[in-house]
């Protein structure tokens, strides 16, 4: 069973994976893909200054980082790659005096850094090469195995390639990517029933954002997001209560 911090890291991976994967695809499709952040018109604006290719590179990098986070297997690599991107985005929004956006990007950066902090032992060799010891496996290692991580990368590649030819096919590949990311987390026997419900709702939100142009999708998204947050708080409270009970029981046994 996962601890609170393990489950939160899992959700942060899914959240940041969606944020940047969808943002990249939205740019590649010129706004024809649901997403939380923008701007979808980046290529059009930069192309006026001869930087259209640069905008496409940014979009592709966002998709790659998001897909790596989705896989769980390569999530650490995705988190490392995402740091310079988050710092760059934050610097741009601050220098352009965008209202509110720097705060949102600062939150993304903090979430990004929290993923690295969770696996800080894997970076010990950078600072203590002489006394290097093998990093202990985290409880999330269970989600790394199998063929699903590779299937997620294949679906993400299909989403990027189809973005140049068909928006409908792109949406289809995008939904497939989200579904595989959810399956990668839900199939291993590591989550409680409540945690599986929370993850399922998170994946459902990705679907709803992608299909946001369908009548009725956005109100359902708002309701589902509210329920998700409530269930997440309840789950964290139950886990904390259970951990406290076990700690108290152990203390009594020792006495």
Automatic annotation (TrEMBL):
Keywords (A to Z) from UniProt: Membrane, Transmembrane, Transmembrane helix
Q: What is its main location?
A: membrane
How this chain sits in the membrane, per its record, is: Multi-pass membrane protein
Name a single GO cellular component: membrane
Q: Which InterPro entries does the annotation name?
A: DoxX
Where is this chain's protein located in or outside the cell? Membrane
Q: Which domain of life does the UniProt lineage start with?
A: Bacteria
Spans traversing the lipid bilayer: 7-30, 50-69, 76-94, 100-118, 173-191, 220-238
Q: Record keywords: Transmembrane included?
A: yes
The protein, known as: DoxX family protein
Q: What is the species listed in this Swiss-Prot or TrEMBL entry? A: Rufibacter latericius
């Amino acid at each position: 069973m996962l601890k609170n911090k393990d489950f939160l890291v899992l959700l942060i991976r899914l959240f940041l994976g969606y944020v940047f994967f969808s943002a990249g695809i939205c740019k590649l499709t010129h706004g024809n893909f649901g997403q939380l952040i923008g701007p979808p018109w980046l290529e059009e604006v930069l192309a006026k200054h001869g930087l259209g290719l640069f905008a496409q590179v940014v979009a592709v990098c966002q998709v790659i980082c998001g897909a790596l986070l989705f896989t769980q297997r390569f999530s650490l690599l995705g988190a490392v790659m995402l740091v310079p991107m988050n710092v760059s985005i934050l610097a741009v929004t601050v220098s352009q005096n965008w209202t509110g956006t720097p705060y949102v990007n600062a939150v993304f950066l903090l979430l990004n850094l929290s993923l690295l902090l969770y696996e800080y032992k894997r970076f010990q060799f950078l600072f203590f090469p002489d006394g290097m010891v093998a990093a202990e496996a985290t409880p999330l290692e269970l989600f790394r195995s199998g063929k699903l991580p590779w299937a997620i990368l294949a679906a993400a590649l299909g989403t990027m390639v189809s973005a140049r030819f068909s928006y409908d096919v792109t949406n289809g590949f995008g939904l497939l990517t989200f579904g595989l990311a959810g399956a990668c987390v839900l199939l291993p026997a590591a989550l409680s029933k409540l945690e599986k419900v929370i993850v399922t709702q998170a994946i459902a939100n990705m679907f709803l954002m992608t299909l946001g142009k369908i009548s009725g999708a956005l109100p359902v998204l708002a309701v589902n997001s509210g329920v998700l947050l409530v269930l997440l708080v309840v789950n964290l409270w139950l886990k904390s209560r259970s951990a406290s009970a076990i700690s108290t029981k152990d203390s009594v046994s020792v006495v």
